[in-house]
Automatic annotation (TrEMBL):
Protein known as: Hexosyltransferase
GO cellular component: Golgi membrane
Organism of provenance: Arachis hypogaea
Biological processes, Gene Ontology terms: cell wall organization; pectin biosynthetic process
Annotated Gene3D superfamilies: Spore Coat Polysaccharide Biosynthesis Protein SpsA, Chain A
Subcellular location: Golgi apparatus membrane
Enzyme class: transferase
């Protein structure tokens, strides 16, 4: 390993302005925490004034549930429960730090009750009622009061910056938990309108042989392998999301004709995706669509992830998370099973002639010209990515099992984590470092799931350890799929915004405030979208 983990290098490029930005962020965090604390203390003294107000307003809430509205509404019980849960979670941390395990346990039990109630509300589509909410809110309040009473006063305990950040992280975690619960419903499958679009596109693909001829002709374009052009790759089974990524990238590019997009989708969606990109205008950019089922080299004898996905035991492992929750099979998130998700580890194999590629997740929107990324100095590193350990403690120990000696002997638990979603990959350096072989090694070590549980980030953290160059954070702003409180200025300044989390912009659980940022890159007057919007 040539370099220490990214965290230990403080590159000169982290300019002064960057730190001003960070300080600005931190001070608003402090403000927010103090506001929440103050607000909640008052609330406790007043003995649930919101409860009474809610009783009067309750009959308004009877129509069908709009989750965005419900969670944003000051009047709703869901919001009240959510807020109390966040405070309670902060106290769980504090109680644990003070070794008051009994109180931590009591609080945790109530938090679970809270979560159950919220997920029930989401499943049945009916708002939480006064009768359901009152006992939980009351007992949570009295526990929180107890916590304050025995000196776990949040305002005095949280004195250091570390604790402020931790409280913020609890807030983010609460949002994640809640979005996971709602997300399981959403993850059931594509919404009806998207399914409708797929069907229409697919029938075009089958009816019009000219489309197939056109796609065959484009396969041989020299532009696909021209390293003087700017190459992007997207691996997705969602045609509309992919369209938004491509369209937003070309719409904000200074010279869209110099961009080349490499899309890989699965067999079911291949025809639809081809049809869409052949029949819409993307400002002259070159677009290639491939079918993952034609990657015969990506088989069980070469790739441990393919082997693991085919193995019935590991299937239960990949689904384990959902089985624990006793959720119906159709609620399971098929994304975890999807090989498309792991394709990011095979980019040099898929594009053997390319030297640099920007990888984009299908839940991002590009807002600036990205070609500058290609001329950034990665200092010999493979992966350029934004780090995520600034605002919350997203360090290696969060993602990996450091009780395991093969992890703890090779990695620093405090190393800073980074994000997938918008990465610039130097494929020459990648091949030289054998990063794919490293990924294979770690994926094999984790066959029993003891090093990490799910996802592509943990193996990414391992195989790009010491090979990652931190980028300015404004290249990639995360959280639009779960965090309700992202600063508008941060969003505006972002080159790429990422709807990671379960509240995807194409789902009905999308966060209302961010949805227009995605919607504006869809051609609303497209006849198929108009037909499908109503069905
Ligand atoms: C839900 O509420 C949000 C915010 O008021 C609104 O923008 C959105 O259109 C609503 N969604 C539905 C499906 O009614
Ligand atoms: C599996 O992939 C390897 C290379 O990755 C290739 O040599 C082999 O022929 C493939 N096997 C099959 C059955 O396609
Ligand atoms: C990468 O793999 C090749 C052959 O598998 C080997 O010769 C080379 O030393 C490896 N390089 C590194 C940096 O591990
Ligand atoms: C972490 O690794 C240790 C040692 O291999 C193992 O005993 C433990 O079960 C692992 N933890 C999880 C959550 O898998
Ligand atoms: C791309 O986005 C623009 C808005 O920037 C929109 O007018 C256009 O219709 C979109 N094109 C497609 C194919 O969705
Ligand atoms: C939107 O779609 C319509 C119908 O296909 C097309 O005529 C129009 O040019 C498209 N607009 C843009 C900006 O792509």
């Amino acid at each position: 390993m040539r370099r220490r983990a990214a965290d230990f290098r403080r590159p000169v490029r982290r300019r002064f302005s960057y730190w001003i930005w960070v300080l600005l962020g931190l001070s608003s965090v402090v403000g927010l925490v103090l506001f929440v604390v103050h607000h909640n203390q008052n609330e406790d003294r007043d003995e649930y004034p919101l409860l009474e107000r809610n009783a009067r307003l309750e009959h308004f809430a009877k129509e069908s549930l709009n989750f965005t509205e419900e969670i944003l509404s000051v009047k709703s019980f869901s919001r009240q429960l959510t807020q109390q849960m966040i405070l309670a979670k902060a106290y769980v941390v504090i109680a644990k730090e003070h070794n008051n395990l009994h109180l931590a346990w009591q609080l945790s039990a109530k938090i679970r009750g809270c979560q159950l109630l919220l997920s029930k509300a989401a499943m049945t589509g009916e708002p939480v009622t006064l009768e359901e909410a009152e006992p939980i809110i009351k007992s949570l309040s009295s526990l929180i009061f107890k916590a304050q009473d025995i000196h776990y006063d949040i305002a005095t305990t949280i004195v250091t910056m570390k604790s402020h950040i931790q409280a913020l992280e609890e807030r983010a975690n609460a949002a994640t938990v809640q979005s996971t619960v709602f997300g399981q419903i959403a993850a059931e499958g594509l919404p009806k309108s998207l399914h409708c679009l797929n069907v229409k596109l697919m029938s075009d693909w089958l009816k019009k042989p000219s489309l197939k001829a056109l796609s065959d002709e484009k396969k041989n374009s020299q532009r696909l392998v021209d390293n003087n052009l700017y190459h992007f790759c997207i691996f997705s089974d969602n045609v509309l999301a992919t369209s938004v990524v491509v369209n937003s990238t070309v719409s904000n590019a200074d010279h869209p004709k110099q961009l080349v997009f490499h899309i890989v989708t699965d067999g079911v969606n291949y025809g639809a995706v081809q049809t869409w990109f052949l029949s819409n205008d993307f400002k002259g950019a070159t677009i290639e669509v491939q079918n993952i089922e034609e990657f015969h080299w990506l088989n069980a004898s070469y790739s441990p992830i393919v082997k693991q996905l085919l193995n019935p035991d590991s299937k239960t492992f990949y689904f384990g998370l959902y089985q624990d929750a006793n959720v119906e099979p159709k609620m399971r998130n098929p994304k975890f099973l999807s090989l498309l998700n792991h394709l990011r580890f095979y980019i040099p194999e898929i594009y053997p002639q390319l030297e640099k590629v920007v990888f984009l997740d299908d839940d991002v929107v590009v807002q600036k010209d990205l070609t500058q990324l290609f001329s950034l100095d990665l200092h010999g590193n493979v992966n350029g990515a934004v780090e995520t350990c600034l605002e919350a403690f997203h360090r290696y120990y969060k993602y990996l099992n450091f009780s395991n000696s093969i992890i703890s002997s090779k990695f620093d638990p405090q190393a800073c984590a980074w994000a997938f979603g918008m990465n610039i990959f130097d494929l020459v350096a990648w091949r030289k470092a054998n990063a794919t072989a490293k990924y294979h090694y770690w994926q094999e070590q984790n066959a029993d799931g003891t090093l990490w549980k799910l996802g592509t980030l943990p193996p990414g953290l391992l195989c790009f350890y010491g090979l990652t160059e931190p980028l300015d954070r404004r290249w990639h702003v995360l959280g639009l799929g779960y965090d309700l409180n992202i600063d508008n200025r941060l969003i505006e300044s972002a080159a790429v915004i990422h709807f990671n989390g379960n509240m995807k912009p194409w789902l009905k659980f999308a966060i209302g405030r961010y949805k227009p940022l995605w919607d504006k890159y869809i051609n609303q007057s497209h006849p198929y979208l108009q037909d499908c919007a109503t069905s």
